[in-house]
Amino acid sequence: MAVSDQAKERLCPAVSQYGPANVRDLEPGKKMKWCTCGLSKTQPWCDGAHKGTGFKSLKWIVPEKPQSVYSICMCKHTQNPPFCDATHTNLPAAVEQTQTSCPGRSDHHMRACPKLCTKCGWVPDF
Ligand code: FES
């Protein structure tokens, strides 16, 4: 596979949680970085854990119009980031299927995927 083809390949994130985080008291105008890889320990925001995975955080500015709560996606599969769009509802079976049929599955426990298998979202248990 050519490098340009690999770059176009969609990376599969880890699921941090099958449901949103309801985040309150965000300061209007504040710059946030939404975690796209699912590995951050400061969910739903980025802590830099994506380093080396090919993922990048998504920059988002809290709207100036005050809102008391934001429903922020934690499954990382939303089509409207960083907001939950209910994609998580049907996700568990799809994720299990993707991980079961992952072409890199045989390498999962051989440290070929030290943090995250970006083909299926598999994360090693440490
Ligand atoms: S938590 Fe990701 S779409 Fe709802």
Automatic annotation (TrEMBL):
<keyword id="KW-0411">Iron-sulfur</keyword>
<dbReference type="InterPro" id="IPR018967">
    <property type="entry name" value="FeS-contain_CDGSH-typ"/>
</dbReference>
<protein>
    <recommendedName>
        <fullName>Iron-binding zinc finger CDGSH type domain-containing protein</fullName>
    </recommendedName>
</protein>
<feature type="domain" description="Iron-binding zinc finger CDGSH type">
    <location>
        <begin position="61"/>
        <end position="94"/>
    </location>
</feature>
<dbReference type="GO" id="GO:0046872">
    <property type="term" value="F:metal ion binding"/>
</dbReference>
<dbReference type="GO" id="GO:0005739">
    <property type="term" value="C:mitochondrion"/>
</dbReference>
<dbReference type="InterPro" id="IPR042216">
    <property type="entry name" value="MitoNEET_CISD"/>
</dbReference>
<dbReference type="InterPro" id="IPR052950">
    <property type="entry name" value="CISD"/>
</dbReference>
<dbReference type="Pfam" id="PF09360">
    <property type="entry name" value="zf-CDGSH"/>
</dbReference>
<keyword id="KW-0408">Iron</keyword>
<keyword id="KW-0479">Metal-binding</keyword>
<dbReference type="GO" id="GO:0051537">
    <property type="term" value="F:2 iron, 2 sulfur cluster binding"/>
</dbReference>
<feature type="domain" description="Iron-binding zinc finger CDGSH type">
    <location>
        <begin position="21"/>
        <end position="56"/>
    </location>
</feature>
<keyword id="KW-0001">2Fe-2S</keyword>
